Amino acid sequence: MLVAGLALAPWSTAAAAAAKDAKPAADAAADKKPDAELPPLPADKTIKQSVRVGGRTLSYEATVGTIPVRDAKGKKIADVVYTAYTVSGNDPHRPVTFAFNGGPGASSVYLNMGAIGPKRIQFGVDGDAPSDAAVTKDNPNTWLDMSDLVFIDPVGTGFSRSLEDEEQTKKDFYSTEADIKYLSRVVYDWLVKHGRLRAPKYVMGESYGGYRAPRIAYALQTKMGVGVNGLVMVSPYLDPAAIGDGDALSPLPWMINLPSMTAAHLEGQGRLSPAAMADVENYVRTQFVTDFLAGRSDPGAISRIVQKVSSYTGLEPSVVSKLDGRVDIGSYLREVHRADKKIGSVYDSNVTAFDPFPGSAERQSGDPILDALLAPTTSAMVDFVTREVGWQTDAHYEALSYAVNKAWDRGNADDKPVADLRKAIGNDPNMKVLIVHGYNDLSCPYFTSRLIIDQMPTFGQSQRVKLSVYPGGHMFYSRPGSASSFKADAATLYGVK
């Protein structure tokens, strides 16, 4: 889940007072002690549960456990907490799927209890509220009948934690390159710990987790010595240059955003369909680009853009005209619901909340989906871990850490996920990829993936890389119909009939 502007209170350390007599620098460093020692996390805990799926009862074991992260000298520097669901029988050849959410700063609760885990809690659709009961139910669309499931919370999310000071934590965990390095090792260590190296392996990531997935797969292939059978990229964050408002010279961000705005408008009219979407996709690839680049050199270019964009989005022509046809995401979410004094979510623009400041020139409130899901998902996950499983800790569960997001060093790796995706499938002619989106998502619009796939080499791409788009937004799986379609597409990837 890409959560813009996120900011886990870091665990900081301070140097102990230096001894009165002078000491060598090495001795002084050895005297430095943390202000407070963190209590150890509990030992791994497993319970037996069952779920009704596909008309039958499936028995499984639910485990909450930890994987230690160590530095080059073997010193433990972090605890990574995971939640695993494994079907009883200890079959070493049963597929296993490793799932990551994004942010950076999001725990894996969203894919766990929203998408593919055996239990789910409702969130992500219009009408959800923070006070909704944190009660889970059997998930009819769980993937547990196809694969064992391991949900990993990166450092600073969930109950996973760094054991280093703030500065070293940023260096070792809060950057794009360090993130891929230690999470790939965590996957390897889990496989070794549980004797699953012979199992077919799948990596799944949502949003920034979709950025992680191909990079982790390539690192597993080339650094860890672990082959990956398939990738599932959910609403992936793949090309930062294609997301946002963009500069005045590039039509790309506007091309990518317009189809998702159009989808929301069509859905509101009951007319959303692949055929209807093909029309706007063709427009942004052709006439829109021509008129956009013509600019003021063609007196009719801007007016043509205004007319088409207004028609596609449902916005008043006067509003679109003021923007010269370039409707940014913020303006769209405010204007499309202004008459109802509501605001739309960037994750699904048809999910709304009342605008607490409708008379303000600028939006002054949070996102309707994020603000509504934090309480029920956090409460449901903590209740499951501490009460049901009995893995007791007094640490706070970080479902969404704004501190991690704020501290993140994005470096110069923006092009890496697509490059590593190409290299990973180029290396392994048997590996398959499923990229999935919701039509209404404006945080990671589906058309980015459409364009990226269209530009990929032809080495088996058409047979091995599939894009599916479903009704809904970033968390389209919150809609039962879309979740069911998603599982059906995944069954093909896993070779399940």
From TrEMBL:
One of its GO terms (molecular function) is serine-type carboxypeptidase activity. InterPro entries: AB_hydrolase_fold, Peptidase_S10, Ser_caboxypep_ser_AS. SUPFAM superfamilies: alpha/beta-Hydrolases. One of its GO terms (biological process) is proteolysis. Residues 23-42 are annotated as: Disordered. Residues 1-17 form the signal peptide. Pfam families: Peptidase_S10 (PF00450). Residues 23-36 have a biased composition (Basic and acidic residues). It comes from Dyella solisilvae. Keywords: Carboxypeptidase, Glycoprotein, Hydrolase, Protease, Signal. This is Peptidase S10. The lineage of its organism: Bacteria, Pseudomonadati, Pseudomonadota, Gammaproteobacteria, Lysobacterales.
